């Protein structure tokens, strides 16, 4: 069966804590990751938490990219869900892993929509 | 190890195709699902595709809820990611599975941030 999409669930550990708490940096890097993955951005929603942490989501033509950060733990959760044959969520992963300076990570790839054939 | 969050990846099959293509219905049901899960909505982003399909994401205090629909296939992909002990992503799942009239589904629960302890 053919999947409709590939979804990477990424836990990034040992990240740069200042970058995890910088909404402008995260917005720019998420946009760059969307471009690296070959997706087209259609919309976004961001929120800065107090005392720290950022949530950012990009809606893209091919599904969505999301990040949630916990600066006090040096941790970021990424969701990189892309559909179609022209996109590569692993390219977004590579961009964001470097952008946040992660020293460890855990990645799970889940195939989406395996039962949704034509 | 304690996880920071629970993330449900849900594939819904055999859904009501009209509901999958109704942005107002999907917006209302996603808001209701967020309430059912015990989350607080902080922001949102929605897009209606042509000729059909809807993407909707809610940013919540406790992470995010997302839906992508393929009306022509009767398929919806849900991502229900909640953090903290006061939330229940399974309650959002139950609400949305019924809302879309799914006849089959596949659910994967992934623990997020297992290595991000205090």
Structural description of this entry:
Two copies of one chain form a homodimer. The first copy, chain A, is an alpha+beta fold and 118 residues long. Helices cover 25% and strands 42% of the residues of chain A. Chain A is built from three helices and six strands; from the N terminus they run βααββββαβ. Chain A has helices at 17-20, 23-36, 89-99, and strands at residues 5-13, 41-48, 54-60, 63-70, 75-83, 104-112. Chain A has a six-stranded antiparallel beta sheet, with helices on one face. In chain A, helix 2 (23-36) runs antiparallel to helix 3. Chain A is globular and about 45 Å long. The mean pLDDT of chain A is 96. Chain A binds chain B through residues 4-5, 7, 9, 11, 13, 42-47, 55, 57, 59, 63-64, 66, 68, 70, 73-75, 77, 79, 81, 83, 104, 106, 108, 110, 112-118, and chain B through 4-5, 7, 9, 11, 13, 42-47, 55, 57, 59, 63-64, 66, 68, 70, 73-75, 77, 79, 81, 83, 104, 106, 108, 110, 112-118.
Radius of gyration of chain A from CA coordinates: 14 Å
DSSP helix count of chain A? 3
Which pair of chains forms the biggest interface, and how many residues does each contribute? A-B, 38 and 38 residues
- The quaternary state of the protein chains shown equals homodimer
What would the average pLDDT of chain A be, to the nearest integer? 96
> Biggest sheet of chain A: strands side by side, in what order?
2-3-4-5-1-6
Q: What is the total tally of β strands of chain A?
A: 6
Rough outline of chain A: globular
- Order of SSEs of chain A, N→C? EHHEEEEHE
Main beta sheet of chain A, described?
Answer: 6 strands, antiparallel
Report helical residue fraction of chain A. 10-25%
Low-confidence stretches of chain A: none
């Amino acid at each position: 069966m053919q999947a409709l999409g590939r979804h990477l669930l990424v836990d990034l550990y040992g990240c740069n804590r200042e970058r995890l708490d910088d909404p402008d940096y995260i917005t720019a890097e998420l946009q760059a990751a969307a471009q690296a993955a070959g997706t087209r951005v259609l919309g976004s929603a961001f929120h800065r938490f107090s005392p720290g942490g950022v949530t950012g989501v990009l809606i893209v033509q091919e599904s969505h990219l999301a990040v949630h950060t916990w600066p006090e733990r040096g941790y970021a959760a990424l969701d990189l869900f892309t559909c179609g044959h022209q996109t590569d969520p692993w390219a977004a992963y590579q961009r964001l892993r470097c952008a946040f300076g992660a020293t460890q990570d855990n990645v799970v790839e889940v195939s989406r929509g395996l039962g949704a054939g034509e």
